[in-house]
Fold this sequence. Notes:
The chain is an alpha+beta fold. The chain has one domain: 2-Layer Sandwich (Ribosomal Protein S5, domain 2), CATH 3.30.230. 32% of the residues lie in helices and 29% in strands. The chain is built from 4 helices and 9 strands, in the order ββββαβαβββαβα. The protein has helices at residues 43-56, 73-91, 145-157, 171-189; strands at residues 2-5, 12-18, 22-29, 36-39, 59-66, 100-107, 110-117, 123-127, 160-167. A 5-stranded mixed sheet has the order 1-2-3-5-4, with helices on one face. The protein has a 4-stranded mixed sheet with strand order 6-7-9-8, with helices on one face. α1 (43-56) packs parallel to α4 (171-189) and α2 packs parallel to α3 (145-157). The longest helix has 19 residues, at 73-91. The chain is globular and about 45 Å long. Pathway: Amino-acid biosynthesis; L-histidine biosynthesis; L-histidine from 5-phospho-alpha-D-ribose 1-diphosphate: step 6/9.
Amino acid sequence: MSAQPTPDDRRAATVARTTAETEIAIEIDLDGNGRVETSTGIPFFDHMLAQLGRHGGFDLIVNATGDLHIDSHHTVEDVGIALGEAFAVAAGNKAGVTRFASNRVPLDEALIDVALDLSGRPFLYYDVEFPGQKILSDPPFDPQLIEEFWRAFVTAAGITLHVTLVRGVNTHHIVEATFKGVARSLRDAVRIEGGGVPSTKGVL
């Protein structure tokens, strides 16, 4: 994997990741306007990544090809890894960021609780159980992959993330509320509100 910040003062980065299973290119600008382009070969996943960029207020471009003839697991997980790496590079030393954020986001009957910390310490608490059905897109999407995506993302980004399902019945609604909740929390956490690194250690 190669990850590079932009040469100017923008909090932005590009990442390229190639394995025997996937080939991924990602661009992210934390100070963007929510402009999103996604192409992973998995329509429902593209829709969720679009929620992440749009509601996070990030400019986000994701291009991924993977071994979808096997299943979607490698592509979803590797996009999470690459996106987390890009986020970490774009965030830099996190000087002045709000750091902590939490949101409760509804989507019809579904309600998701999200709390996160740009701590530099990767941790995922994920308490979301689905009714059981796959998302009936083409190809069908297994909602269990969402946990793998978030775990890959927080590990690469160095984020502590707690996601809890408060209530919900419709799998699509639950997943989408999760992405919107994380997006809004990331947006709040990276907001600049001071000048120093918000940690008694002096680093995050």
